[in-house]
Specification:
With 239 residues, the chain is of the alpha+beta class. Helices cover 24% and strands 25% of the residues. The model is unreliable at 18-33 (pLDDT under 50).
């Protein structure tokens, strides 16, 4: 049998490369041109109880911007570690305790903030964030995490649509309209793209409807972060 000529040999090699690339796409589950989602396998949605220690702060959060359906952090004694970021880097998903920055008071004339607040880091220094239809993208990668898209009291758009479908017959007309309004508002959430400056982070509360955060006042300078939120204060009587 005649051997392969150089041209035929290069063509065989080219076909093999295409086949390998196609196999890679199948195995990774990605379509050509798509980027891998940005995941967070570390951050948990659950809030743990923490024993008070010397150096920790007890903070009483009087707002519902972190509510995921269980009045999370609202009127709870929250434990803050003010020294945490002296030895540890800021990470996505962490809830931080910070001094509220200044904002456009003419634009948000009805907003009156306390000195301190808490919110969750969703983007880090140097990253580019955008929000499309209530979904966060970081460097054009979909943030695929429990905090990566718009929520209202723990429910995102798919959950609200499911509720309408499954409970529509027993919901009042007013409640159904409220849910539809939530879906419409979440779906209209748009922002950016915005490049996060060095030394800043982008924070968003877990309840997008009730949170005043980086979507409104811009990226948060890390120097305004006064500690990491560890969880609720443990009840000593249970020990």
């Amino acid at each position: 049998m005649a051997g392969l000529t150089p041209n035929r040999l290069s063509m065989v090699g080219f076909i093999k490369l295409i086949w390998i690339a196609a196999l890679f796409v199948v195995l990774t589950g990605c379509k050509a041109g798509e980027t891998q989602p940005l995941t967070d396998e570390v951050t948990e949605p659950d809030i743990h109880e923490i024993a008070m220690k010397k150096g920790y702060l007890a903070y009483h959060h009087n707002y519902d911007n972190m509510d995921r359906g269980h009045h999370d952090f609202e009127a709870q004694t929250t434990i803050i570690d003010p020294e945490y970021y002296k030895d540890n880097p800021l990470k996505r998903g962490e809830i931080v305790y910070f001094i509220n920055p200044d904002f456009d008071h003419d634009k948000y004339s009805n907003v009156h903030l306390e000195e301190m607040s808490i919110s969750r880091i969703v983007a880090l220094p140097g990253e580019t964030i955008k929000i499309t239809a209530g979904q966060i993208y970081v460097n054009d990668r979909k943030l695929s995490s429990f905090y990566g898209n718009a929520h209202r009291i723990g429910s995102d758009i798919p959950a609200l649509k499911k509720s309408l479908k499954e409970k529509g017959e027993i919901l009042s007309a007013e409640m159904k309209q409220n849910i539809k309004n939530m879906i419409r508002t979440m779906d209209s959430e748009q922002l950016g793209p915005i490049k996060i400056p060095d030394g800043d982070v982008f924070v968003i509360g877990d309840d997008w409807f009730r949170s005043f955060d980086s979507r409104h006042f811009g990226s948060l300078p890390a120097k305004m972060i006064q500690g990491k939120v560890l969880g609720y204060q443990e009840d000593p009587s249970y020990r």
